[in-house]
């Protein structure tokens, strides 16, 4: 799907409102990553570049210059090339791209450095990501050019574009709802079809098969973790056999038209919860419910949602005798980190861990107040090291996480992933 010209121009306008006068901002596309031999990875555009241009080719860039007099939008792209297009697909080309986006100027990508040299002299600010994963060499060359031009203030584009991307537009919310729906359906399929004796990759195939059937891809590699594997936070091998009575933790979410979803469900394989599994699952579910209730309230902070979940988990662990001391001391000494070592939420959007500051702008580090249009995950979990003999045996090897995607609305919050059973 394309982003229409009107949307692009609205976003560019909002972005340039945040730029200082006499500044430039440069966004690079994603790079086409080589895999092996003649094989390339599937191309996925850089999220901010996509957000501002709706253009999905590699080797392209967007330069925005804001002076007192005017705003210039300059796009760079690969040239049309009949021979290359036969092998790797159609290219839009700079001329057509200019028409498509409504940007004022367009050039071939190879002219990026020359045009920078020409256009940025005399500016006082430059916004750019110098430490991206892609175009490492080019990034350092660009930094050289900026330094040679004696531009005083160099800062990241993240803070500015993060402010825009943090509040989702209606059309973005539609896409996020669709992504959440596909992912919730995939989790339901996994719940229905999981049997003891299957391999983790077979569940992965069911889930990702559903993503592909619906025109989506994974937003991050699926975690399908049976038994002890559930205690490894980023387990992605997915190559072990599933055993009756073990828990299966599935953290899988699709990306639909560039927008991510992120769901985790944990359930016992072909059986009912054992007593210890039930206790832990029940506690994580309660922590999630408390955190979701918090997100429903008006003008609460991002951090307060985490604190609700954290306090609930810690209180439960103290009651079960798994943590010593009272709530205050557990929170102070961070002893809970042995069982809960990650945060409860992150922003969700074009990236699964989306951009946007977690602090209120122009504050002294105050946690962000949740506003309509923001989307967060709420994903408490508890993980018990299978080899830690200080943990009562009945809990060792249990890993539970429950994760949903929540849209903050005018009247509270909407759970986008509610269709996946808990
Ligand atoms: N799936 C990544 C996360 O839950 O943050
Ligand atoms: Mn998440
Ligand atoms: Mn997740």
Structure description:
The chain is of the alpha+beta class and 422 residues long. 36% of the residues lie in helices and 18% in strands. The strands form six sheets. It has a six-stranded mixed β-sheet, covered by helices on one side. Strands 9-12-13 form a three-stranded antiparallel β-sheet. Strands 10-11-14 form a three-stranded antiparallel β-sheet, covered by helices on one side. β4 (61-66) and β5 form a beta hairpin. α10 (275-296) runs antiparallel to α11. The longest helix has 24 residues, at 170-193. The two termini are 33 Å apart. 40% of the residues are buried. Bound molecules: glycine (GLY) and manganese (II) ion (MN) (2 copies). Residues 251, 262, 264, 403 line the site of one manganese (II) ion.
Question: What is the gist of this entry?
Answer:
With 422 residues, the chain is of the alpha+beta class. The chain contains twelve helices and 19 strands.
Assembly type: single chain
Indicate the percent of residues in helices: 25-40%
Reported for the largest beta sheet, the result is: 6 strands, mixed
How far apart the termini lie comes to: 33 Å
Strand order in space, largest sheet = 6-5-4-1-7-8
Q: Got a strand count?
A: 19
Radius of gyration: 24 Å
Bound molecules: glycine, manganese (II) ion
Question: What are the main properties of this structure?
Answer:
3-stranded antiparallel sheet, binds glycine, 422 residues, alpha+beta, 18% strand, 6-stranded mixed sheet, 12 helices, binds manganese (II) ion
